[in-house]
Amino acid sequence: MGVLLSGCTGGVSAPSGSKNEINYALPANFTPNWIVPIGTPGHLNTNNASISQVLWEPLIAYDGSSGEIGWNKDNSLATDAKFAADDKSVTITLGDRHWSDGEPITARDVEFWFNLVRENKKSWASYSPGKAPDVWSSFETIDDRHFTLDFDRAYNQQWMLANELSMIRVMPQHVWDKTSDSAAVSDLDRTPAGAEKVWTYLIDAGKKISRYASDPLWKTVSGPYRIKSFSTSGRVELVENEKYDGGGAAHVKQINLLSFTTVAAEENALRAGTVDYGYIRASDLGIKKSFTDLGYHVERWSGWAVTYMPYNFNNPEMGAVFRQLYARQAIQMSVDQKTLSKVLFNGTAVPTYGPVPQGQPSAFLSDEQKAEPYPFSNSAARKLLTDHGWTMRDGTMVCTSPGAGEGQCGEGVEKGTEFKMRVLSQSGSTETDNMMSALQSSFEETGIDFDIKTAPVNSVLSQTGQCEKDDPACKWQLSFFGSAGSWYFPAYPSGDALFASGGGSNFGNYSNPEVDRLIDRTTTSSSLDAMPDYSKALAEDLPVIWLPEPDYQVSVIRDGLGGFAQDSLANFHPAMWAWTE
């Protein structure tokens, strides 16, 4: 028990034994740090969203927990969405639902979210210029349960529903529309200045994690659970919202979310019987019998995701090198994704060659992406660099022919520049550590120096921000936060947030006008070619270093716990969990 005590940051739970509780293990080194149903930079981890959504249900919930990705109306506040014939507006119908304090959930609560996000969009982590809320030109309340959103032009219905409308979070205006704990609630959100002040108040309150369970602000919920306790060390206890009146009610009274510093500590907790729903390393699949003998079953949890390391194109040291396509091609050619997937991930990962998930077949994937545009070859990578003005010196490539002409290093790359990269990588995963070491060896074969630093995922995300070249925060060059996949898509895997110029999650400031045009087409056109054309372009232009996409996790679930499928969007849904025997 000594390893378990030191490894589990959220404290140790005794074997539940009770059918009124479930102990769920959060990913290693993940500490929940946000519940506010408005995402801000540094708080984008999928698990934060999963916790928030069982407290405040989305307007339109998309997930794959039924076995395929679709609109989950049981855990949505909207019951219908009717698009106009010209695809320039949608009218939403709300269900007959109530907040936990008995007040009805109305269009006013949706408008509250709309006003806050519209006036504070640049502080909203999901914002990309030209996307939500920019795409919505007006909000019109019809009555308490109906409202219309007008668009600035016609849009692809599939994209609008799955990617934009699904981001709307309905919030209790009658409780939250104020600027301090002691202030009275009023219609402050309806003026720009008021909306900014309310936003600031809510975001500041969200930073006070130790007060999540006690602050009256967070007690009015719409979802199947409410907060019982929320520790800054990582343990979260959720209890059934007995006032819940939606279709996705809880089956189990209490959910205990446990945080661990390492997978080894979590595996020890499984062996001790203190976890009902946990995971093992992919490398431990060979010993899964040791867990099935303890009364668990093992299931792979695959994701609708891609995995990558973003470049910081504005980094003052290496940004000019990263902006050269040939340099990115040489880097990509040095990544042996097939061997990494087979050996390091024990067959629980698939190569990623572009921006569309490849673990599941889809019409979105281009033939060019599937075909691996830049096959692994250290020799080809070395030749590509030497053909562009680089010379090997003491094992590292050095730019010896600066300039933008043929056979030169490229615009902005100075003579004497060494091809040295550094990455800040997520800690807590043996597979990730092994992959970084393998990459380091392979890059060395090409003549690229690769320095690795590690930190918990929240630290990695907080240090991986958009920046200008002269910004002190622009020191990062490469970042990796994808031990369980870097980016989980909505049902429609467009890349507007990730790869459009100025996209809210375009961490490295990648920008390509032609790609912007293709991304815009995926959101506005219903053409079947729109997504494959985008897939082809980014498989070839390499906005990031594509890496193997691992299973979200290899789950170890106590026998008798079931009634659900594992959501390929990487959310967990406690209300669906049930003891079936």
What does this structure look like?
It is a single chain. With 581 residues, the protein is of the alpha+beta class. It has 18 helices and 25 strands. The protein starts with a helix and ends with a strand. Helix content is 27%, strand content 19%.
Short description:
Helix content is 27%, strand content 19%.
- Percent of residues in beta strands? 15-25%
Number of strands: 25
Main sheet makeup: 4 strands, mixed
Low-confidence stretches: 1-15
User: What is the residue-averaged pLDDT?
Assistant: 93
- From the alpha-carbon coordinates, what is the Rg to the nearest angstrom? 24 Å
Distance between the termini: 29 Å
In which range does the helix fraction lie? 25-40%
> Structural class of the secondary structure composition?
alpha+beta
Report the total helices.
18
The best one-word shape is globular
Major sheet: arrangement of strands? 1-10-9-8
Brief descriptors of the model:
four-stranded antiparallel sheet; 18 helices; Peptide/Ni-bd; signal; SBP_5_dom; 581 residues; alpha+beta; four-stranded mixed sheet; SBP_5
What layout of secondary structure does this protein have?
Elements: H1 2-7, E1 21-25, H2 46-55, E2 62-63, E3 70-71, E4 78-83, E5 89-94, H3 107-119, E6 136-143, E7 146-151, H4 157-164, H5 173-176, H6 192-206, E8 225-230, E9 236-240, E10 254-258, H7 263-272, E11 277-280, H8 289-292, E12 296-301, E13 305-310, H9 319-322, H10 325-333, H11 337-344, E14 349-350, H12 367-370, H13 378-386, E15 390-393, E16 396-399, E17 420-426, H14 430-446, E18 449-455, H15 457-462, E19 478-480, E20 487-488, H16 496-499, H17 513-524, H18 530-541, E21 544-547, E22 549-550, E23 553-558, E24 561-562, E25 578-579
Parallel strand pairs: 1-10, 17-18, 17-19
Antiparallel strand pairs: 2-3, 4-5, 5-7, 6-7, 8-9, 9-10, 11-23, 12-23, 13-20, 13-21, 14-22, 15-16, 24-25
